[in-house]
Design brief:
The complex is a heterodimer of chains A (about 120) and B (about 475). Chain A has helices spanning about 5-30, 35-40, 60-80, 85-110. By secondary structure, chain A is an all-alpha fold. Chain A has one domain: Up-down Bundle (Methane Monooxygenase Hydroxylase, Chain G, domain 1). Chain B has one domain (about 10-475). Chain B has 20 helices and two strands. Chain B has a two-stranded antiparallel sheet with strand order 1-2. Chain B is globular and about 70 Å long. The chains are: A mainly alpha (about 120), B mainly alpha (about 475). The interface between A and B is small, with 10 and 8 residues.
């Protein structure tokens, strides 16, 4: 019974071994030249220490929300497109309605000026 | 593989479709032309009236549609009518308030309509997913509406609190649904019941799942001990929104509880009758006792709405067809009297809700005798004094519980009813027997508010004097017991 799990244990050991091995190897045989910039924690090029109160535009959130809505639209459109032929006219009209409702939302935010970037 | 498109009956969801279309129309009208802004409330009322027409078209044979996701039966219809009445009255009392408080935007009316659609899906859902979608649609609209008067700090606080706690409650609800689905492998209520009767292993998990779902619904219903958000949110939200939140969503939560418990959870009836009884006792008692000490009418009505949810739960715990029809009748009467009372409060409190304390009502009889009389009728009805509708509603609830053998529960309810009379009468005393030192000018009600109050007064008397025919309609709306 436990034999079934042997490959998983081997996998865990191999994965952990590789990671630990790399760290140990670089610590032992890597060159060590230290300077201040190199000692900083690395965070995708952003300075790790800065004022947390910096303000940024609320427009980021609006754009992010809009992105999610249209992202989800794409999620629904994809399976629909795959079986489009089988669904026929009914599916076509249903999807048009769905897109219409989302389009109304887009028209609404557009007219409200949510897409203006000041 | 062929795709079989399930039978779809658009007539079953006609009221929802009408409200959605009107909601979208209002949004578009609002962004494209300024000149319609005065008419938005009336367009919304027109939409509600049209939806009401469709909701009242009788259904001869109950059925499920949309592949069993939605039930088109009289239970759904009766609750739809309650929601639409609540929404219509809210829109009517909103009209003047919205203009005075600078919230007369298209979004305000659209959100109310969309929330109503959510409630309808809660009442009509025959599937856990449909019910959850309804809960979320309703709740998200209400979170925004609670914070609609952005200039008032209390309104912002209400919105934030409601959102955080509401999201938490949705988690409970979803967790409960997840457990039930995990055990039965079904999300359709009828099939859940079937799966359980076929295989009743894992009873413990089922009981926990059902309990978590009741917690989620009890939060939306504001039943004690899940009521902590209610006073602050009801007090902070704009008055018409409070009126809306304290009637429709409560009825929707009750509808969902009834449908889930009766259609899917018959197997643990003994357990849920006990839970609901305990909830009912706590809800009535805490609601009434906390309402006693309030000096702010808005907060008092918030606690009073908690206690009314408790009375309705007494009917649920009866777990008989009489109990269910009594609950439905109760919510119908409660919608009229509760929204009318809030409507008068919105008028008396003046623009920007300057004064919502009991002092605002002092001497109202001298300045506005008619308004004072209407408020008295509504408060007497809320207190449950004959011949108003509130009395008959309580009477049927208590009778159904007595017939089901819950004598102790009814005793607690009757004592609570007596406690409740005190704080309603306190307001009536202020209206008739106390002088307002500030000598205020008489307040002027707009035509839409007058219409809403007139309808409510007539309804409260008609339901109080001739409850039989409405009760018969509710009786026919029954779920299978």
């Amino acid at each position: 019974m436990l034999n079934q799990y042997l490959p998983i244990i081997v996998m865990i050991v191999a994965a952990a071994g590789t990671a630990i091995g790399m760290i140990v190897a670089t610590t032992l045989i890597g060159p060590k030249k230290s300077f201040p910039d190199k000692d900083e924690p690395f965070e995708c090029g952003v300075s790790p220490v800065h004022n947390p109160k910096s303000r940024f535009s609320i427009s980021f959130y609006v754009i992010a929300m809009l992105f999610i809505i249209f992202d989800i639209e794409a999620v629904f459109l994809f399976p629909w497109a795959v079986i489009f032929q089988k669904l026929g006219m009914f599916g076509f009209i249903e999807m048009l309605l769905f897109i219409f409702v989302l389009a109304v939302g887009l028209v609404y935010v557009w007219r409200k000026g949510a897409l203006e970037w000041e | 593989m062929d795709i079989v498109i399930p039978s779809i009956s658009f007539s079953a969801i006609m009221p929802e479709l009408v409200l959605l279309a009107v909601g979208i129309l209002i949004l578009l009208l609002d962004v494209f032309s300024e000149k319609h802004s005065g008419k938005l409330a009336y367009i919304a009322v027109g939409g509600v009236a049209t939806a009401l027409f469709f909701a009242m078209t009788p259904i001869t044979d109950p059925s499920t549609t949309f592949a069993g996701l939605y039930s088109a039966d009289r239970f759904t219809q009766f609750f739809k009518v309650i929601f639409l009445i609540g929404t219509g009255l809210t829109l009517l009392i909103s009209e003047k308030y919205a203009k005075e408080n600078n919230i007369n935007h298209g979004e305000y009316y659209s959100l109310i309509l969309f929330a109503t659609v959510g409630m309808m899906f809660m009442a009509g859902g025959a599937d856990l997913i449909t019910i959850f979608m309804g809960v979320e649609l309703m709740s998200i609209c209400l979170y925004i509406l609670a914070g609609y008067t952005r200039a008032r700090m209390a309104s912002n606080e209400a919105s934030m609190k409601y959102f955080l706690l509401g999201a938490f409650a949705s988690g409970f609800l979803l967790y409960g649904m997840g457990l039930i689905y995990g055990i039965t492998g079904q999300t359709k209520l009828v099939k859940i019941a079937g799966a359980i009767s076929a295989n009743s292993d894992n009873m413990m998990v089922l009981v926990i799942g059902a309990g978590l779902m009741i917690v989620g619904f009890a939060f939306k219903l504001a039943a004690v001990p899940f009521h902590q958000w209610t006073p602050d949110v009801y007090q902070g939200a704009p008055i018409p929104v409070t009126a809306f939140m304290s009637s429709g969503p409560k009825a929707a939560a009750l509808a969902a509880i009834l449908r889930v418990l009766v259609e899917a959870m018959n197997f643990i009836q003994v357990d849920w009758i006990m839970w609901v009884s305990v909830l009912a006792i706590m809800t009535m008692t805490v609601g009434n006792i906390a309402a006693l000490v309030q000096s702010d009418i808005k907060r008092m009505l918030a606690f009073s709405s908690i206690s009314h949810a408790g009375y309705a739960l007494v009917g649920v715990s009866a777990a008989t067809s009489d109990g269910v029809s009594a609950v439905m009748f109760y919510m119908l009467v409660y919608t009229f009297m509760n929204i009318a009372a809030f409507g008068i409060l919105a008028l008396v409190a003046k623009a920007n809700e300057q004064n919502t304390s009991i002092d605002a009502f002092k001497g109202l009889f001298r300045t506005n005798p008619v308004l004072a009389a209407v408020m008295t009728i509504m408060l007497f009805s809320l207190a449950g004094i004959p011949p108003m509708g509130g009395f008959m509603a309580k009477f049927y609830i208590f009778m159904s519980a007595v017939n089901a053998g819950h004598l102790g529960l009814v005793l607690v309810a009757v004592i609570n009813s007596a406690i409740g009379a005190y704080y309603y009468i306190k307001v009536i005393v202020a209206i008739y027997f106390q002088e307002n030192p500030e000598k205020p000018e008489p307040v002027k009600a707009g035509p839409s508010l007058v219409f809403a109050l007139l309808v409510s007064v007539i309804a409260v008397f008609v339901l109080g004097l001739m409850p039989d025919c409405y009760l018969t309609i509710a009786g026919k709306a029954l779920l299978p017991f």
